[in-house]
Design brief:
The complex is a heterodimer of chains A (238) and B (233).
Chain A (H helix, E strand, L loop, with lengths): L27 E5 L7 E7 L2 E12 L12 E8 L14 H15 L10 E11 L4 H15 L9 E8 L2 E4 L3 H6 L2 E7 L6 E4 L2 E2 L3 H27 L4
Parallel strand pairs in A: 4-5
Antiparallel strand pairs in A: 1-2, 2-3, 3-5, 6-7, 6-8, 8-9, 8-10
Helix pairs in contact in A: 1-2
Chain B lengths: L27 E3 L4 E4 L4 E2 L3 E4 L2 E4 L3 E6 L2 E6 L11 E9 L3 E5 L6 E4 L12 H4 L5 E9 L5 E4 L12 E4 L5 H5 L4 H10 L2 E4 L4 E5 L2 H18 L7
The chains are: A alpha+beta (238), B alpha+beta (233).
Amino acid sequence: MGGYGDVQMIDENGLRMDGRKPGDLRPISIETGVIPVADGSCRMVWGTNEAIVAVYGPMEAHPRKIQRQDRAVIDVAYNMAPFSTTDRIRPGFNRRSREISKVTKDALESVVLLELYPRSKIRVSIEIVSAEAGTRCVGLTAASVALADAGIPMTDMVISVASGKVNDVVVCDLNKEEDNYGEADLPMGILPNTGELVFLQMDGDLSPDEFKQAWDYNVDAAMEVHKLMIDALKGGDN
Amino acid sequence: MNSRPVGQLDNMSIESNADSPRDTQRTLVVVPGEDLGSSEGIEAGHGVLVVGDRIISTKQGKMRRKGNTISVSPLHTRYMPRPGDLVIGHIEGCTNNIWFVDIGAPFNSILPMSLGPAKVEFGGTRKILDIGDSILCRVQEVEETHQSVVTMKGMGLRKIRSGALDELDPHLLGKLIGKGGAFLREMKMETDCRIVVADNGRLWIDGELENILEVRERINSISSEARKIGVDA
């Protein structure tokens, strides 16, 4: 990372390539109930990222060896569609999708009340239709909206946002160029009501001060996204 | 590293006497993790949790208050069997003395030979109910592990031999039935059909073909209308 130091991604006014200020998010829209056959579903458009998530269950866990006698298991499948990026992606699972499925599952397990559904399984399928940067954040956030839409009991919803460092400036919600040519990336999963952290990854180097700044950006952005999620789930009813 | 709490309890309504949104008379749609006010003197019903001295919603749904019990009934959910529910099941498999019945719940139910529709010889289960048959039955018991037992001993419980089956999300049944059964009664009168609404969201419609089609059309319209958020069950 940081091998493209001559690429100027912050202008003299402090604005980024797409005109955003360092702490700004890309435009977000959330829609629920997009897949009629699923128990819960969500389409989330975040900048030019688009994720579609379907939730099925709770249902009987198969094969039986994955059943837990005291709780449910969550089966997360994150997948990027072959047409989601300019370079075609080979269909099927790969190391990256396995890793993201696992971290998403771990984050969701900390909020879903699994002990209410022993021996069952909740299936979460995350399909990335259009990818720019930060698809794991979009996938995880959309998955928690879809779980809420499916009526699955949860203590809170997970909101995932990434911040990073570009040309030595800490910026929130990286786009593709900033992600590719930037110096660091810090995706976080935050529970907005309890204030807990359920997911944290870091790529690149950040000084303690930069880390704190990125953290603060992520927390503020998560609160903004939380409002949009509430609006989507309440359908403007309140 | 973190100098302040990650989350701000900004929806706790601290500024407005800390007890809204409960104080309003309207039924409100709440989301998981939403604070429903103080738990003092309040009983927690379905779909809520007591965390410290606050009541937290765990589901997306309508908040209801009955007496001093607060509960949240979800907008969309899977059918969860409860003892006494009238359900329509499909036979999915059988052994010498047990049928396995799909009742639309997370787990299959079992129908033991002793609770079957007729006297069965050991090993003769398939002669009475075969795989693929549909039955009207009642949930007898549900264990903590979600294992459930259904029975066909009771008034009106039988194998379904005629008519059509349809499905509706279980949370929309209230909308189909109406207050005191008014909508359903009206639909039965208008279409001259026999309609049995089971608690697991399955319906048995029996009558003339055109009438059955009309009932199904009405059910589909309820279903598609309800996909719009905010339609009450």
